[in-house]
Amino acid sequence: MSKVKFAIPKGSLEEATFKILEKSWTKVNRTSRTYRVFLDDPQIIVKMLRPQEIPNLVSEGLYDVGITGKDWIDETKANVEPILDLEYGKIKLVIAIPDKYKYKNLDAMIAAYAKQKKILRISSEYLTTASKFIKQLKSYKKSYGSKDPLIVTPWVRLGTNKNVQIHLSFGATEAKPPDDVDAIMDVTETGTTLKQNQLKIVDKVLESNAFLVANKNSLRDKSKRGKIFDIVTLMRGAVIGRKYLHIYLNVEEKNLKKLLQQVPSLKKPTVSPLSEKGWYGVNTVIPKSDFYKIVPKLRKIAQGLVVHETRQILELEEIKRDEEN
User: Domain limits at 235?
Assistant: First the structure.
């Protein structure tokens, strides 16, 4: 079996990524001041990179699998295969403008600037996403047709419409308006930073979270496919495991039937007789979301409730079917 190269993100997704790696593998070592990460599986070679770079690096085959945000998959238009929604790193990509502006949305802003023959400047790290979003707005089509907004970077200028410009931001995008640009397209989790900078959200462009993506050729490579699905199996198990609790409790025989009937979350539990006659141990896994609902019921008819966070729940048959397809 060939070794698999695995790119993981540095930056905003870094902490959550290491948490899921530590749930997925029994050993995760990171050498100080380097970008190398070592798992307990020597067949997986791991390196940390910027999430913006990972889609293209995986697409080009420099890495077999990688973790990045859906926002960067869309932005780079990388030809990768999303193979697992990791369900963390949830953000929104939004349009924000200064509080003092009265425009309801970017569509209205473009219409007003076109009418006044003013240049509209927008700052963003997401150049192609911003251009695509702007071009589909009614006021843009009406005023500028199918022209591409002018994309401005220190190295190149693309597009022909100088009246609507998208300026590449290198960070601190929220600090740009109103002095340097009129609006921004940026990511936010809660909107707090935008509010602190006297900005208001007027459009939601997309929602994003972290995905495990794969190189399409690597998925077809028999020498790598098995190891890639080892990664999927372990990480999917960690994703599912976050949603459940493993509980163990003792119940008298007279209350056993009542327990199984009244607590619908207890499906196919393991029921074992205890050393003390007339008592049973019940061992099962329940959704975290149901825990607060069943505690009052358990308190009345059971004893010795033990609760564990689940590390992983591995759906081996489902992964096996995916691997074979």
Answer: 4-88+209-241
Nearest in space to 189 (alpha carbons), one of 24, 13, 43: 13
| Residues contacting 118, CB < 8 A, separation 6+ | none
186, 208, 230 - which closes a domain: 208
Tens-digit pLDDT string for the chain (325 aa) = 789 999 999 999 999 999 999 999 999 998 777 899 999 999 999 999 999 999 999 999 999 999 999 999 999 999 999 999 999 999 999 999 999 999 999 999 999 999 999 999 999 999 999 999 999 999 999 999 999 999 999 999 999 999 999 999 998 999 999 999 999 999 998 889 999 999 999 999 999 999 999 999 999 999 999 999 999 999 999 999 999 999 999 999 999 998 888 776 666 789 999 999 999 999 998 899 989 988 998 888 999 899 999 999 887 766 666 666 6
| Count helices and strands in the chain by DSSP H and E runs | 12, 18
Write the CATH number for 45.
3.40.190.10
Q: Is residue 315 part of a domain?
A: no
CA–chain centroid gap for 70, Å, is 7
Confidence (pTM): 0.89
CA distance 102 to 155: 34
Q: Is 319 within the bounds of a domain?
A: no
3-state secondary structure of 149: strand
Instruction: Mark whether 120 and 257 lie in a shared domain.
Output: no
